Amino acid sequence: MMKSIDKPAGAPRPWWREPMMWLVIGGPAIVVVAAIGTGIVAWRGADRVVLEAPSVNAAPSDRALEPALAARNHAATPH
Question: What pLDDT score does 34 carry?
Answer without folding.
Answer: 97
